[in-house]
Structures are given as structure tokens and as C-alpha cells.
Amino acid sequence: MAKYRVLMTDCIFPDQDIEQKILAGIDAELVLAGSPTTEGYLEKGSDWDAVINTYAPVKADFINQLTKCKLIVRTGIGINTIDIPAASAKKIAVANVPDYCMDEVADHTMGLFLNAVRKISFLDKRVRAGVWNVNEANPMPRLSGKVFALYGFGNIAQRVAKRAAAFEMTVIALDPFVSDEVFTKLGVKRAASLDELLAQADFLSLHVPLMEETKHCINLTTIKKMKSSAVIINTSRGPLINEDDLLVALQQNLLAGAALAITFILQPRLTSNWLLVLAAAKKEAARPTASARALKRANLSL
Q1: CATH fold for domain 102-287
Q2: What is the pLDDT of residues 280-296, one digit of tens each?
């Protein structure tokens, strides 16, 4: 019997070979939960020494039943899947992987951005339907000289800034926690406020963490402060945007488009006409959350 037991709440990869190999080095057994729920986590006990988490929620009702856990690790940057107050109350440390797939997410951000602005998916669908008319995709603005705005200027956003600058766009960002030296080094202008950032943005890319202060920070009120020709890109967390407000804004031509990495919040709505409305209006580029995928699986799980 192994010295330690480690629960994996969920996994997006076909196997857990990397994690099992690493944990075997400290005589730890890795067990994948039967389902990404509190009931699934507890099927094989509550005496986990540590928990590894990807996307599934780790709620207080599960944390409170842990008898010996010392550590919960999120295999990504954000820790909004974990009930931090509950973990703190149980004296369980919570860790993340702050350098997880930074380049991949930055690449994905630019991919979604280009797809939305250049109407690539829309034109592809039209050609497949037998229609060869580029004018249907108008307007498609020239990128050089446009303002690419970053809400949040951490590691990923800084990489996005380099990519946006390569298209000869002016890059501005808002982040009170990043030094002036970093802004200057990357040639990025610091916005004085969110209102200034929104007003100047031709394209707005979201890179702030999800917390109470940022939930639904993009809503009808903030969208109305933007140019009607602007496009929003979100490869951060879905609930940063009030999706109902976004739909209204797109239907009323308050925005030119939105490029969204689909989250668990939005997925249930894919069967409704929510995205169908946007697609018909040539204003959306919605994709599964694939921003953390690369040709090789990185050894970043622990």
C-alpha cells in the first residue's frame, strides 16, 4: 500500500501517466475520481493526502469532509475552481501552476482575435455553402494602427502584447500590480482607468483573474463605453463577461464582435439559439477551451 493517496478530480488528457510516474517517486498513489462531483471525489474515501484539480469544482462540502489533506493543487493558473475560504479553514494549502501554457494561451488569443476580425470561420462556412463573396464579411479593418487593449497585464497578457505589436498595433493595458518598468520594456502604454482602456480599445482582450471584483466586469454598462466597432476577446474566465448583456450588445450593434474560449458556463447554452444568433450576424468566434493544448503534453501537472 502506498504511503500517500492523491485524488485527481478531473483530467483533460487521455491518461495520467506523467502524474503517476512523478507521484510514484514519493510512494504516492494517484486515483482519478469516478465523476467530477463531491460524490465522485468521496467514492473511494475522504483520507486523501492531496488533491489535484483541473476544471471541476472543489467545493466546501467536499473540503470539509477531508480528514488529512494538506494540499490542493490546481493544474493551471486560476484558482477560482477551489473554495479558498473552506480550504483555509481546514488549514489546507492551495497551490497553482503560474507558468502553465502561457505561450499557448497567448497564441490562442491571437488566433481567436484574427478569426473574429478577419471573419475566417464565417467565410469558410460560406465557401462550403457554395457562396464565394468576400463582401459578405465586411467590415474587415486593417490591423496596423489600431489599438489593442489588455485588461490585465500578467504573464500571458505580456506575451499577447508582443504578438499584437508584431501586427503594428498600438498596445495599451490596465493593471495596477505591474510595474512601469515592465510597461516601458514592452512598449505598452499604461491606461489610467478601465474607462480609458475601454474608450480607446479597438480590440479588448481579457486577462484578469475571476473574483468577486471582476465577475461580469464586461456588461452592458461597460460595453457602452467602447467603440461600436470594437471586438472583445476572452481567453481568461467566462464569467468575466455577462453573457446576456454581451448578446444584447451584439444584437444592438454596440459591438462588432466577440471571440470567446467556451467555458463550462456557456457550454449548456450551445444548444439554444444564443450562438446561432451571433453566427448569423457574423459577430462571433466561439471555440472549445483549447488554449492550453500544444503538440506535446508538458510536464506541468504538479
Answers
A1: Rossmann fold (3.40.50)
A2: 444 555 444 444 444 33
